[in-house]
Amino acid sequence: MRRKGVLILVALALFSAVMFYPAMTPQIAKGEQIERKNVILIGWDGVQRNHLFEMINRGLLGNLTSFSNNRIFNITVMDHGTDTKAGWTQILTGYKWWKTGVFNNVYWFHSIPQNYTIPERVESYFGVNQVNTGFIVGKLEHMEIQDGTGDTVNGRYTREAIYKNLPSAIDVCTNGAQGANMVGPSMLQFLENNANNHFFAFFQFSDPDTAGHFQGGENSAQYEQAIVRCDNWLGQILNKLNAINITQKTLIYLTADHGFDEGGNNHLNAPYIFFATNDMNVNRNGDQVDVAPTVYYGLGMWGENFNPALDGYPLQVTLPDGVEQERQSILADTTKPSAASIVSPTSGAYVAENVSVTFNVSDQHLSAALLLVSNTLKAEGPWIWNRSGTVKVDGSYTWNATSINEGSYTITVLAFDEHGANNSPSTTTITVYKAIPEFPTSIMLPSLLVITLLSAILLKKRHKI
Q1: Of 62, 183, 260, 348, which has the fewest beta carbons less than 10 angstroms from its beta carbon?
Q2: Is the whole model's pTM more than 0.90, yes or no?
């Protein structure tokens, strides 16, 4: 963690669906000036959109409706699993999952690449001495900032913390299994400390998700009470902004990472979330991948050349022609992607030295193909892609098996489509073997003969003695 001042951000939620290709960054009109604002991104973990609307209609969320002027937008999760790891990763980066390596709480393959998150890019864009950044999170599991903590110890494909690059890059970076009443004061202190600074902050409340999983489920009184606690803390954040006289200088974006299964205690298929803000330029529903571009727009950073290009578009601007139609086409695809065919090696083969692994896979909305050996990611490309009609991929990878130990190894190809919120990946696995190389017969037989003769001579000598 590092130094300085103040920037506020509120977590957002989006509606429509995202597509796999364009990801071009539309430019702000030449000469257009955007006032520099603080931004707070606020996250209410696991809030189901329909339940939120029911509570609004019953007058239970006064702070939410007041600060947003009753403008609540629909956001849909499209390309990744509906859970914490993937949801906040996309919100904080603006990328579809195959660029970050985080598909869901199980399928994550490495930490988020360096400088992909909003706070890191804010620091880089404005300069470390010109802006303060905060990441204050009331959750440990799936929001790890350090290897070997939380869920990283149980990682199937990696043990890397997904936010491991943040602590050294931003000013305040904390996480922990804490309810709103424990983490909230730290958020208020961050604002107090940065009253005279330009800042961005991500504040996350885990209470609704905890209540949904462990305190009665989505339809329980405890779930509603947890959402009310979030609303109360939103009120305290708004009061603090007023007290330090920066309300007019601060944009708040508020969203969720995923919803909740209706009446259930999980969120296996819960892509419907919400987005609320005091940014009056926001004017449409969207996909979760649109949240980060919306934040960048509020910060005055939209129009910069992001590398790689962002996959979404600000909710303050109209979508380019064809994007919404493509998103709806992807959302309508509820079929699991076809399984890959591993061409070589064959299942049961014995391997040695360099092994040529080849495969092919095709699907209407194929988005990614990953090659793993014994659950270790070996390659995610570059493959040969053919996107005319059905998307087809031919993959080739040379696996160096020279120094591996004797035993069995699995080769797996995971195939994902663009509607990952609904469709789980297909899996193709074969088993191969590494054995101790045998000596050629031409060498082994003479060697055995020599050994036999030497043994006979030694025995003869012993008898003489």
Answers
A1: 348
A2: no
Q: Token pair of 246, please?
A: 């920066």
On whether the CB atoms of residues 207 and 226 are closer than 8 A, the answer is yes
**230 plus 296 within the same structural domain:** yes
Q: Of residues 438 and 109, which shows the higher confidence score?
A: 109
Residue 348 shares a structural domain with residue 315: no
pLDDT at residue 1, as a whole number: 47
Pairing of strands 72-76, 272-277: antiparallel
Number of domains comprising the chain: 2
Q: Please compute the mean of the pLDDT values over residues 401-428 and round it to a whole number.
A: 96
Helix orientation angle between 49-57 and 221-243, rounded to the nearest 10 degrees: 70
Q: Is 158 exposed, middle or buried (0-12, 13-18, 19+ CB in 10 A)?
A: middle
Whether the predicted pLDDT of 14 surpasses 50: no
Name the pairing type of β-strands 38-44 and 250-255: parallel
d(CA 276, CA 11): 9
Distance CA 341, CA 162 (A): 31
Distance of CA 296 to the CA centre of its chain: 18
Q: Say what angle helices 180-193 and 221-243 make with each other, to 10 degrees.
A: 10
pLDDT tier at 3 (50, 70, 90 boundaries)? Answer: very low
Average confidence (pLDDT) over 193-218? 97
Full DSSP string of 39-90: EEEEEETT--HHHHHHHHHTT--HHHHHHTTT-EEEEE--SS-SSHHHHHHH
Please tell me the distance from the alpha carbon of residue 373 to that of residue 461, in angstroms, as a whole number.
55
Q: Torsion angle of alpha carbons 374, 424, 274, 183, nearest 10°? A: -30
The verdict on 58 and 162 lying in the same domain is yes
For residues 220 and 361, state if they share a domain.
Answer: no
Q: Are residues 242 and 382 in the same domain?
A: no
Question: Taking a C-beta distance cutoff of 8 angstroms, is the pair 242, 220 a contact?
Answer: no
pLDDT band at 457 (very low <50, low <70, confident <90, very high): low
> Could you tell me the residue range of the domain that residue 396 belongs to?
341-434
192 and 279 part of one domain? yes
CATH number assigned to the domain comprising residue 193: 3.40.720.10
Cα 78 to the center of its chain, rounded Å = 12
pLDDT tens, position by position, 19-45: 333 333 334 443 344 568 999 999 999
Which residues lie across from 273 on neighbouring strands?
A: 75
Task: With cut-offs at 50, 70 and 90, classify the pLDDT of residue 387.
Answer: very high
How far is CA 350 from each of CA 344, 353, 354, 403, rounded to the nearest angstrom? 12, 11, 12, 14
Tell me which of 167 and 30 has the higher pLDDT: 167
Q: Is residue 28 situated within a structural domain? A: no
Left (φ > 0), alpha (ψ -120 to 50) or beta: where does 108 sit? beta
